């Protein structure tokens, strides 16, 4: 545990532990039933474990990978007791995340030499997109970065108003227009304003609707193209926000958005209010896109950088 004490503050670790409590309790209740009356990991136990993982929203493809790995270990070691299963499962999930996810950052950071660093945030309405933007702005400002927000979700007046509330709360400038304005125009103005102000980070909100994949693709492509008139390689990060409490629906949203635009990172929110935290494992494995942030509470500090070591430690603690 010395590794965790060195890198993660006690408060952040406790918040993560608490945020994953429902997921952990649900998972281990199922695990206890899966191995009841068994002393050896056999075919029945593996079948039960497969069901536990799938019903914990880890996802079918990722579950199969985990089961295959455990089967290989059981075959090699000949006898594996059910008492060892938790540790084996922990090791295999950690190994899977290591192969597919960056997920090793310990703080909110942006690449050096990129100023401004432009983040375009995408995701459907209701997933916590605007809240995530506000909390990100807070974290970057806390580090001494100059942050500018762009309210390019012009489809709903409420989206603009909500982002304004966060801009006021965090005390960062916001660029906005009237509801119904061209989102690309807002993004252009936000980047131009950010460059003029010497901003370190510019975060652009975008419309959260999935009514038509072609329309979504066209809109996001246009926003990106117009931003590049101001900052030639913008956006530097396309962050997709997913609601962890929706379980398998989060997978579907990830499929839709990754098909519509080039998503470069993920944020999974609302993990504290759900028993579906296993979705982080499946999403990070299946989409080959790093989970960068996780939401584990409603407080302004409760958006955390996703660290796979810390996450697995809290999950199996």
Describe this structure in words.
With 317 residues, the chain is of the alpha/beta class. Helix content is 52%, strand content 13%. It has helices spanning 2-7, 10-19, 21-34, 43-55, 60-77, 85-100, 129-142, 157-170, 183-197, 213-227, 248-260, 279-286, 308-315, and strands at 117-122, 147-152, 174-175, 201-206, 237-243, 265-269, 291-295, 303-305. It has an 8-stranded mixed beta sheet, sandwiched between helices. Strand 2 (147-152), helix 8 and strand 3 form a beta-alpha-beta unit. Helix 6 packs antiparallel against helix 13 (308-315), helix 7 packs parallel to helix 8 (157-170) and helix 9 packs parallel to helix 10 (213-227).
Which key features would you list for this structure?
8 strands, disordered N terminus, 8-stranded mixed beta sheet, alpha/beta
How far is the N terminus from the C terminus?
A: 11 Å
Q: Strand count, sense and closure of the main sheet?
A: 8 strands, mixed
Beta-strand residue percentage? 5-15%
Strand line-up of the largest beta sheet: 3-2-4-1-5-6-7-8
Task: Please state the CA-atom Rg, rounded to the nearest Å.
Answer: 21 Å
For the secondary structure, the number of strands is 8
Structural class: alpha/beta
């Amino acid at each position: 545990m010395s590794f965790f004490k060195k890198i993660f503050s006690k408060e952040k670790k406790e918040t993560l532990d608490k945020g994953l409590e429902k997921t952990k309790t649900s998972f281990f209740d199922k695990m206890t039933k899966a191995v009841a009356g068994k002393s050896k990991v056999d075919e029945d136990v593996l079948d039960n474990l497969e069901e536990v993982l799938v019903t914990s929203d880890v996802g079918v493809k990722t579950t199969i990978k985990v089961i295959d790995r455990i089967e290989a270990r059981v075959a090699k070691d000949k006898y594996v007791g059910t008492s060892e299963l938790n540790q084996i499962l922990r090791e295999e999930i950690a190994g899977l995340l290591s192969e597919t996810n960056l997920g090793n950052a310990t703080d909110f950071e942006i690449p050096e030499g990129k100023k401004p660093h432009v983040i375009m945030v995408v995701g459907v309405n209701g997933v916590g997109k605007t809240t995530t933007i506000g909390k990100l702005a807070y974290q970057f400002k806390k580090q001494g970065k100059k942050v500018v927000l762009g309210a390019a979700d012009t489809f709903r007046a409420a989206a603009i108003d909500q982002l304004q509330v966060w801009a006021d709360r965090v005390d960062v400038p916001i660029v906005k227009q009237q509801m119904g304005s061209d989102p690309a125009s807002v993004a252009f103005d936000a980047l131009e304003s950010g460059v003029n102000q010497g901003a370190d980070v510019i975060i652009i909100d975008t419309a959260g609707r999935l009514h038509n994949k072609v329309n979504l693709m066209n809109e996001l492509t246009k926003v990106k193209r117009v931003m590049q008139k101001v900052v030639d390689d913008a956006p530097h990060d396309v962050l997709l926000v997913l609601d962890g409490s929706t379980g398998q629906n989060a997978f579907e949203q990830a499929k839709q958005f990754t098909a519509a635009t080039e998503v470069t990172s993920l944020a999974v929110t609302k993990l504290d209010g759900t028993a579906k935290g296993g979705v982080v494992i499946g999403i990070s494995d299946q989409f080959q896109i790093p989970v960068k942030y996780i939401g584990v509470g409603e407080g302004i500090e409760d958006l955390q950088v996703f660290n796979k070591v810390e996450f697995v430690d809290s999950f199996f603690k």
